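Incident log, support desk, overnight shift.

02:14 A customer reports that sequence design results differ from what the structure should imply. Their input is reproduced verbatim below. On-call engineer (initials T.W.) acknowledged and began investigating.
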């Protein structure tokens, strides 16, 4: 079995025409909420084999805050996550090495929430900024990932 944790980046500052979307930073409130979530993950002794994150600044900041004091075996930046569709996100995940069993993907909506719906067949879930969904995948290999192969274990914020 594989575990995929899908996380939408934390609440970002409003650009208001001053900063392009890619360079938007987390808001103060967003940072504080992520620190609280990090505390929950530390108490749960959460570990990830792999962290995959968008190159956007707010996703980098989110990944750093959320994984503070957690064990992460490997970390990669994947440009295709930014503005990634379900199809693009699936392509990224299907090409993962099967050595990774517990993966954290930090990205953006609508792709992250759409992928969650696709994998779990849940119809009333949308991840707000700073939320994460833990999905148990009943598959032995990442290339078997498809619609309905996951079950929602937990949503954290």
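02:41 Re-run completed on a clean worker. Output:
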């Amino acid at each position: 079995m594989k575990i995929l944790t899908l996380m939408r980046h934390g609440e970002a500052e409003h650009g208001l025409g001053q900063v392009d979307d890619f360079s938007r930073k987390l808001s103060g409130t967003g940072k504080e909420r992520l620190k609280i979530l990090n505390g929950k993950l530390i108490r749960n002794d959460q570990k990830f084999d792999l962290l995959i994150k968008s190159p956007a600044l707010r996703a980098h900041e989110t990944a750093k805050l959320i994984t503070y004091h957690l064990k992460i075996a490997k970390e990669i930046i994947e440009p295709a996550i930014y503005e990634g569709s379900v199809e693009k996100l699936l392509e990224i995940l299907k090409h993962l090495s099967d050595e990774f069993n517990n993966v954290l993907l930090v990205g953006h909506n609508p792709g992250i929430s759409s992928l969650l719906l696709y994998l779990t067949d849940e119809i009333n879930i949308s991840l707000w900024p700073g939320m994460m969904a833990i999905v148990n995948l009943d598959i032995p290999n990442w290339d078997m990932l498809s619609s309905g192969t996951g079950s929602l274990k937990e949503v954290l914020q």
